[in-house]
Amino acid sequence: MSFILLGILNSQVPPSGAGNSFDLLETTVLGSVASSVTFSNLNNYSDYKHLEVRVTAKSNDANNQALRVILNADNAGNYNWHRLEGDGSSVSSTNQTNDARMVAGLIARSTGSGEFSGHIISVLDFSNSSKFTTIRTLSGFFQTANKRIQLSSGAWRNTAAVTSLRLEAFADFQTGSRFSLYGIK
Amino acid sequence: MPTPTYDLIASNVLTSSASSVTFSSISASYRDLVLVCQPIHATATSNLRLRFNSSSTGYNFVIAIGDGSSAVSESGTGTEINLSPYAQITTSQDSLQIVQVMDYAADKHKTALVRANRAAGATEMQAHRWADTSAITSLELFAGSGNLNTGSSFYLYGIVS
Fold first, then answer.
1. Per-residue pLDDT tens digits for B122-138
2. CA nearest to A118 within chain B
3. Minimal Cα–Cα distance from B124 to chain A, Å?
4. Looking at CA atoms only, how far is residue B105 from chain A in angstroms?
5. Of B104, B155, B78, B114, nearest to A138 (Cα)?
6. CA–CA dist B113, B63 (Å, integer)
7. Is B69 an 8 Å CB contact of chain A?
8. B68 at interface of A, judged by CB pairs closer than 8 A
9. DSSP string covering B21-33
10. How many A-B residue pairs are in contact by the CB < 8 A criterion?
11. Is the pLDDT of residue A20 over 70?
12. Burial group, residue B25, by CB count within 10 angstroms (0-12, 13-18, 19+)
């Protein structure tokens, strides 16, 4: 019993020289409108196991359109995804197969000064080349014109290591939209 | 070059009951805040509340919840953020709330994404807006009714960007 307890205690002590496990890799805050933001050369980050993208976004579209995620510039219909959402009055779920992109929540629409949507996108095992890449997103916003909370997930049906990740808006992202990429060991 | 970035800013594990817990003088050196809460309430069916900068105006929410038999969504306004409107707890049931406050020091309305759980009752996801462009410099957590009991824990992290 003592050994078990000692083992538990030891497991809670960081090994000497342990590094950080959650690192900022890149960040972009738009100084002008842009239709997309791309994080490329992700193969340089293969010492990380997972990626997390944290976004606050606002689009130039008058409606709330999906935040689109494209991996390795592949828009050939290789994404399957599903979504659970609440709009303030009901809960619903939908899915899509063979889509040309992954969706990661809805972007705040153009109306409403200062109103941005939040998106936390997890890309799991992104450099593994023996399985499909899974993405999970928690996102939401409350705008005067609309509101939504969403949990979505899906798979890019390709076993290639992810080397680029592009975030697209149906219309341009507005100035001040922020995109931060983190690596998790 | 990667930048180390997920820092514990402050924590508070109550050694005696308290009516509230406040994290103040939060610097603007981070981009996002993450608040991990595990409250123990003195009053059954209480719930955890959150205010920014001691403000009691400008809060809006949309939530979705599943309790094992049905799912509902609600929205509205309030004088604070209710972190567990459905995951109300009794003194014997733990709940957990993880709050992600995005761009807390930016000149934007503040968006907070929340995942809340009560193992014996419900699971929730929430989006909140605080319609204020001020930088958030303090967080006040308090119970909807009664005190927060000994053992309640609150951890505040900052994420650099």
1. 899 999 999 999 999 99
2. B111
3. 10
4. 13
5. B114
6. 10
7. no
8. no
9. EEE----S--SEE
10. 136
11. yes
12. exposed
Instruction: Write down the pLDDT at residue B121.
Output: 80
Chain B: residue whose CA lies nearest to A29: B161
CB of B128 within 8 Å of a chain A CB? The answer is yes
Q: B2 and A183: CB-CB below 8 Å?
A: yes
Q: Which of A20, A22, A56 lies closest to B103 in CB terms?
A: A56
Cα separation, B151 vs B153, in Å, equals: 6
Half-sphere exposure of A67 (CA within 13 A, CB side): 39
Return the number of other C-beta atoms located less than 10 Å from residue A159's C-beta.
11
Instruction: Give yes or no for B66 touching A (CB within 8 A).
Output: yes
Tally the residues of chain B.
Answer: 161
CATH architecture classification, A20-184? Sandwich (2.60)
Identify the structural domains of chain B with CATH numbers, from first to last. Answer: 11-159 (2.60.120)
Q: In the beta sheet, which residues pair with residue A182?
A: A24, A52
Burial degree of B1 (CB within 10 A; 0-12, 13-18, 19+): exposed
Higher per-residue pLDDT: A111 or B90: A111
Q: What is the pLDDT of residue B91?
A: 64
Report the percentage of chain B scoring pLDDT > 70: 93
Q: What's the ipTM?
A: 0.93
> In what order do the strands lie in the sheet containing A50-57?
A91-99, A79-86, A147-156, A133-142, A117-124, A50-57, A178-184, A22-29, B3-4
- Please report, for chain A, the start and end positions of each structural domain, with discontinuous segments joined by +: 20-184
> Is the pTM of the predicted complex or chain greater than 0.95?
no
Minimal Cβ distance to A148: which of B102, B107, B127: B127
Question: What is the overall mean pLDDT for chain A?
Answer: 90
Query: What is the reported pLDDT for A111?
Result: 93
pLDDT of residue B88: 60
Q: Is B92 a residue whose pLDDT tops 70?
A: no
Q: What is the largest CA-CA distance in chain A?
A: 64
Q: Does B127 touch chain A (CB under 8 A)?
A: yes
Distance, in Å, from the CA atom of B85 to the CA atom of B88, rounded to the nearest integer, reads: 6
Average pLDDT, chain B: 92
pLDDT band at A24 (very low <50, low <70, confident <90, very high): very high
